[in-house]
Amino acid sequence: MARRYPRLAALQARAITTLWRALANRRLSSLWRLSRFAGPLVHGISRREREVTEVNLAQVYPELGAAARRRLARESLTHSAATMLELGLAWMAPPERVEAAILEVHGRELLDEARAEGRGVIVLAPHFGNWEVLNFWLSSHFPFTAMYEPPKIAPLDSVTRQGRERRGASLVPTNPRGVAALLKALKRSEAVGILPDQEPSWGSGVFAPFFGRLAYTATLLPKLVARTEARVVTGVARRLPGRGFAIHFLAADDRVYARDEGESATGVNACVEAAIALDPAQYQWEYKRYRKVIQEQEGHPDHGAFRIY
After folding, report:
1. In angstroms, rounded to a whole number, what is the distance separating the alpha carbons of residues 266 and 209?
2. CA atoms within a 13 Å half-sphere pointing along the CA-CB vector of 140
């Protein structure tokens, strides 16, 4: 829609940017109160987000009763709303304000030890808590490279890039050129970020268990590890509602280092599960994580995904 109507896209981008700038000056306690209003509103009027979240939770937590899953769904959508409202803080607030909002950092030694050994670090950053705050912290403390896909509203691209790069992060495209940049960064013993729970295109992944169900999972990680011997950690910025954030770095499941792509993908999903266990409500459950299983059953075209040779 935005590409077909550039004027509308420009108006949308201007309105969203204005909102982010205004929210950048608000206290975290105020943003959390707004989120507690917005989350149930999304749950009530947005059928798509509500249904996908509830279906995912029913698959992942079948032992919970229906009422408990509905409460968890509302809490999850509240945290998703908080992430969107906090983008102004992460991207536009004075850096010292963002730093002050990061109240705890756990597991930093995993990154420091890897770099002391001359190894790069691959940070698996699932859609949990506020991943933009995680990006801010990483790029403030380490040379950091991450893949980047432009937003659907094209005029927001410059705002998004400026926000993510303002502490020195290097953004690279989601194509072979970007993969080459990740390899070079790892060989320089730097840190790179990968979204482990984003479904890849056909040909760039394998089916691996995620909470006991098969999910199409990217196989980029074992290729990067094999070429660089990098250390893998999971990283999240857990929200401390109304107060700030706690950064957590978790040691990766040992299977991520396997040369077999299926076993490595299983390890990647285990890493995401471990992060979600910190607070299941802070995971973005409205993403259709299992959709390619259905497409596989119905047949699918091969879209020529990129590979590393």
Report:
1. 6
2. 16
Assigned token pair, 181: 């940049």
C-alpha to C-alpha distance for 4 and 153, rounded to whole angstroms: 11
Going from N- to C-terminal start, the domains of the chain cover 6-298
Q: Which amino acid is at 265?
A: A
Distance CA 24, CA 17 (A): 10
d(CA 69, CA 67): 5
Look at residue 2 and tell me whether its pLDDT is greater than 80: no
Amino acid at site 284: Q
Closest to 105 in 3D by CA, of 143, 137, 139, 142: 137
In sequence order, the β-bridge partners of residue 15 are none
pLDDT tens digits for 252-297?
999 999 999 999 999 999 999 999 999 999 999 998 888 766 555 5
Under DSSP, the state recorded for 149 is -
Q: How far apart are CA 106 and CA 96, in angstroms?
A: 20
> By the 8 A CB rule, do 200 and 268 touch?
no
Amino acid at 251: A
Stated length of the chain: 309
